[in-house]
Amino acid sequence: MFIFRQLRDSGSATYTYLIGSRASHSAVLVDPVADQSPLYLGLLAELELRLACVIDTHLHSDHLSAARTLVRHTGCAYAAGLASGIATATLGLADGDCPAFADLQLQVLATPGHTPGCITLRWEDRLLTGDALLIGGCGAAGEPGGNPGTHYDSVTKKLLPLPDELLLFPGHDRDGRRVSCIGEERQGNPLFCGISRDEFIAQDRQLPLGESARARLEANRQGGDGSLLQRPASPAASTLSTTTNN
Ligand SMILES: [Fe+2]
Hints:
By secondary structure, this protein is an alpha/beta fold. Helices cover 24% and strands 23% of the residues.
């Protein structure tokens, strides 16, 4: 029997996913947030699961990844897309890879654009899309190496052609929506429905990256090294710190 949990970090509106197996006691955490590490460790203990791997769907600018903390506490592997730029990842994931952790079997779809290394994970009847595709939206432009045209192609050529009934679990939702499905997004996502590639590129969806977001990117290139966030912020940085990019 499998276990699936959707956990929310309210500060960053991030969704983290726990996938576990009662048979093998193996578990995977997708996009965990550093502030919530005690929650994850407690939940793993409560469910009698051993963390096999942390997977980040991309290099995040809006929150500090819990990967470094969880690797230190559990000795788990750390996986991310091959083009993520995350130096401490021990497992690089490419399009079509099917990483297995005991009886947990995932499939990797490379869905670049929001960042060059964005991946979507498929598990059973569901997709964990990170910021490639959100409910009624998608991750913002403006991340390092991001490319709106590539983002449009990833969503329209790789995700939206998938079966209607595949469940879509996003990396964020600021309105608290938790799940959608591919059919719903194909028919009603306003960023893609009836929107051409050129129109998508022309949309002004670029959020400026503030100093705190840039510091989080640096910290997350090391798997979420919180010591890199300790530098004193300039007055300008504190103004910009309210801007976050999904
Ligand atoms: Fe993001």
